[in-house]
Amino acid sequence: MTSAPGDRQIAVVAFAQTDHRRTSEDLSEVEMLMPVLHEVLDRTGLKTADIDFTCSGSSDYLAGRAFSFTLALDGVGAWPPISESHVEMDGAWALYEAWTKLLTGDAGTALVYSYGKSSPGSVRDVLTRQLDPYYLAPLWPDSVALAALQAQALIDAGDTDEPALAAVAARNREAATENPHAQLKEPAPQGDYLVRPLRTGDCPPIGDGAAAVVLAAGDRARELCPRPAWIRGIDHRIEAHGLGVRDLTDSPSTRLAAERAGAFERPVDTAELHAPFTAQEIVLRKALRLDDGVVVNPSGGALAAHPIMAAGLIRIGEAAARIHRGESDRALAHATSGPCLQQNLVAVLEGEPR
Amino acid sequence: MPEVLKAPLVVEFPFTRSLGPVQSAFLTGLRERVVLGVRTADGRTLVPPVEYDPVTAEDIRDLVEVAPTGTVTTWAWNHAPRRGQPLTTPFAWVLVRLDGADTALLHALDAPGPDAVHTGMRVRIRWAAERTGAITDIACFEPYDGDRAQPAGHTGEFEDPVTGIVAAARLDYTYSPGRAQTAYINALSGRRTVGERCPSCRKVYVPPRGACPTCGVATSEQVEVGPRGTVTTFCIVNIKAKNLDIEVPYVYAHIALDGADLALHGRIGGIPYDEVRMGLRVEPVWTEGSRYPDHYRPTGEPDADYDTYKELL
């Protein structure tokens, strides 16, 4: 069962993120992260000592800095020791862990954060190290190349074409003009092929950034936030790891996660999709059965800002923030991890009737 | 603010990985120019083969030879090959379903240009001249308009099967230590040790990392500490470290510099190793051109009272 039992509801009560930038070389990871931690706590009036559980997501490979997540903990105020955990995944999966912790009743509040500093390395190459070490990693297939194979498969299947992909890019970046944190804030020419059929405009910007969310249970959530974004369901699923085993034009794992999270029980008005590459938005819209009435990626999505390891958590945060502001009543947030939408998480968030 | 420090950082790691029986047969087969798949319970043939059924997670061991020829199922043109990739000239990434297989294998296709590549095109394996039992024993694919090659029905039994691979990896970074550590390193180059004070609990951290781990707030007020300090605890090192030209035994110690609320560590010299003690007063010894103290030596002052450093242990 992956929907919250009726007697204990968990909500996102606050969200904060950095401005996402091509480089943050003037800051260490903890220096980049700390203002976001302070901002998210300030929104709720909570202090470090009021947080029952802390969970983070990051990857040392991005900046090449071993055990960077332990250094980042300095920014939380982790001494004397706190109840804390870390996933070497996007922060959306850290949020999933925190949600389960809150469901057990062991915690009433949780701080979830994640950060990614891609600027010190060559992220296209760094991401090859997450692949199957026997059959894929020795070939160094970079992240854009794998996404391009997926895009071509979609084109061959008649699901999209280059102008349609360009339209996805333009729409996301147009939406990002309203997002002060975005790295790319206006439509730009699609540019040259990076790996054909993907052009520069089909790919996410490379950059550094961080995000944080506070979760709270039941009445605690109502105290901390005028309109909590209740997590009605959340689930994550994974595809077979062999790329050649999968149908790259579909995302059955997303569909299953959405089903288990209750996404299909009633229509959503908003969807924040973690589609770093334009073609992946086509796959996700189909898997999630989103029609034109749904506002997709009002933040600009991952095509406008893509701090790796934080971009998925930001989708949940953006969806929740729209509920907090009264701009959405029922929103879907999606996060992905791995090549070609390998692993997918779907959360359904709701605000109480106004 | 002074310019941010940067330095190249190379992370290299050779992972030595063992192989399961199916992976071993497949990679040994490549060495012998034989391509093996594995059959699932529902009769599909997976190439490259895996140890467990992707749907049912059952153990699968039924090896079957497939052809070195096949069909492109999707492709992407890579006009700028990157380090480590199969070809150094522009090529197409391809997923290829080999004849006799139901799934596709990722590799490179050597073709003159994107106009020469399409989904559905026929290709064959070009074998590497030297083969070791690795996916790179396939040099790449090449266009092929001949007949389907017929597999010989190999059993998957080999003499001298490969049992592991060494996966070498190298990643290049430009490392930057951030604001607080940049200031610390810059001060060290002037032979000064500068920490940072927490605005909340007033502790001085040396070296500073930019945040107070107790209060979770930024440290920013810079405080020069030392140069003298007190040994708070120590150990005697009896094993010679690789690439380190120091006679053993020697003493490695935690040293609380005067004015610091956190001990840093350093080597103690200028005193027999068995005379070093908690409370010993020390000072840094700099060598010409060095960016940090080579070691610390006794100052000759009386030992510090335990009470003065007991909170810093």
TrEMBL record, chain A:
Q: Which InterPro entries match?
A: Thiolase (IPR002155), Thiolase-like (IPR016039)
The molecular function terms in GO held by this entry are:
acyltransferase activity, transferring groups other than amino-acyl groups
- Name recorded for this polypeptide: Lipid-transfer protein
Origin species = Streptomyces coeruleorubidus
Automatic annotation (TrEMBL), chain B:
Query: What highest taxon heads this organism's lineage?
Result: Bacteria
Looking up InterPro entries in the UniProt record yields: ChsH2_C, ChsH2_Znr, NA-bd_OB-fold, Thioester_dehydratase-like
GO molecular function annotation: DNA binding
Domain ChsH2 rubredoxin-like zinc ribbon, chain residue ranges per copy: 192-218
Which terms are listed as keywords in the entry? Answer: DNA-binding
Residue ranges constituting the ChsH2 C-terminal OB-fold domain according to the UniProt record: 64-127, 223-286
Name of the protein this chain belongs to: DNA-binding protein
- Native organism: Streptomyces coeruleorubidus
